[in-house]
Amino acid sequence: MIGFKSIGSTVSGDEILEVSLTGQLLLDCPLLNKGTAFTEAERDELGLQGLLPLCVITLDRQVNLAYEEYQQKNTDIERNLFLNSLHDTNETLFFALMQEHISEMVPKIYTPVEAAAVKAFSHIYRRPRGLFISYPERDKMDTIIENYPYPNVEAIVVTDSEAILGIGDQGVGGIGIPVGKLAIYTLCAGIHPATTLPIVLDVGTDNQTLLNEPLYLGWRHERLRGQEYDDFIEAFVQSIMRHFPKVFLQWEDFGRSTELHEAVPADLSDWTEGRVLVATGSPFPDVHYRGRSIAIGECNNCLIFPGLALGAIASQAKHITDEMIEAASRALSECSPALKNPHDALVPSLEEVREVSRQLAIAVGIAAQKAGVTEASTPEKLAQKVAAKMWTPHYARYQKV
Prior knowledge:
The longest helix is centred in the middle third of the chain and has 18 residues, at 226-243. Helix content is 41%, strand content 11%. Helix 3 (59-71) crosses helix 5 (91-100) and helix 14 (305-315) packs across helix 17. It is globular, with a radius of gyration of 22 Å. The protein is an alpha/beta fold. It has helices spanning 23-27, 40-45, 59-71, 76-87, 91-100, 102-109, 113-119, 121-124, 141-146, 176-189, 208-211, 226-243, 265-271, 305-315, 322-333, 353-370, 379-388, and strands spanning 4-9, 15-19, 131-134, 155-159, 196-202, 248-251, 279-280, 287-289, 292-294, 297-298, 397-400. The mean pLDDT is 92. The strands form 4 sheets. It has a 4-stranded parallel sheet with strand order 3-5-4-6. It has a 3-stranded mixed sheet with strand order 1-2-11, with no helix packed on it. A two-stranded parallel sheet has the order 7-10. It contains 17 helices and 11 strands.
């Protein structure tokens, strides 16, 4: 287990963390690594002398430097690889960069670009993230889950990879979807990255291209079906319940790539003489129709599920009810820019998503209380619980345990 604990704050208000890792092991931990932002005092205390260049720079400066490097990438898949590499090196910097350029970068780690990364998984794999639970290792499931280095898991996204992003069965490569989705949980709703766990259930694949691929990294077997599959899923659920009884568990097998769109906003505007209300699953540019510009909102589910998860976690709901989902949807509708300007986008922009998620979470928590799946509290206390769960990327001051 990777040990760290918040023990208060400095006079200036900076959070103080006790950490058990030192030296190169600390630098190799993406959740705790600060790179060149480690202070001189931290370098002395944590055995980092000589392991980093002399100059100490701030997180803001690191963000600027990372963005400069990002801009040098020529293709979307290169940008995806760069961001995932940063995610695997320095999570705080990754989320700070993503937050600074959210509309530009979300499509690079999520829909639509992640579809291409999933298809190429066995060729671009560099470093493990999350858990790979394969059917041949089903008897080791408890051990596998116990091997996850962060013990306080509050949110899990799991897939069996059969219906990924409209591109179908992608075998073990489907792990990219839970990884991307949980990054969105953190980015859009502030769910702490140390409390998230992406999982792929490797139950084989019926994708013959993958089965014939010499470099394929998953279980090279036709996809499991029937009772054997059901028993495996039940064993997984029971193991998760034993280890993380209060976890928010999302089953994820689908999204949409722009290659498979059924219509484009420009055509829809033409066909309806500009009267259509459009929200798309992946980003599209604004449409210019008869002298006016029509904003195209991205109805990406990152406007709903992070806030839904945040509300469930903050309120400690026992399970997700239909009423909680409806409450999230209604809260989102109340955030529509089109309510104030009929020519504006149907849904909020990603720049507004953290505030949207906060409002959704409170609505979800209230609905959970009404449904009797959590303890009652005042709206004020619920709002405080939601705020306390919303992490913002920052560097804490480290002390050696």
